[in-house]
Amino acid sequence: MGKLRAADAEKRAASGYGPDFLEAFARGLRVIGAFSRERPQMTLSDVARATDLPKPSVRRALYTLTCLGLAASDGRTFRLTPRIMELASAYLGSNMITTIVQPACERLSEKTEQSCFAAVLDGYDIVMIAHSLHGRPDVLAPTIGLRRPAFNTAAGRAILSQLSDEALDAWLEKLQPKVMTDFTVTDKRALRAEILNVRRQGYAVTVQELRRGYHAVAVPLRRFDDTTIAALCIAAWVEDSSVGSSTDDYLAALRDEAQGLRPQLL
Question: Where does the record place a coiled coil (predicted)?
Answer without folding.
Answer: none
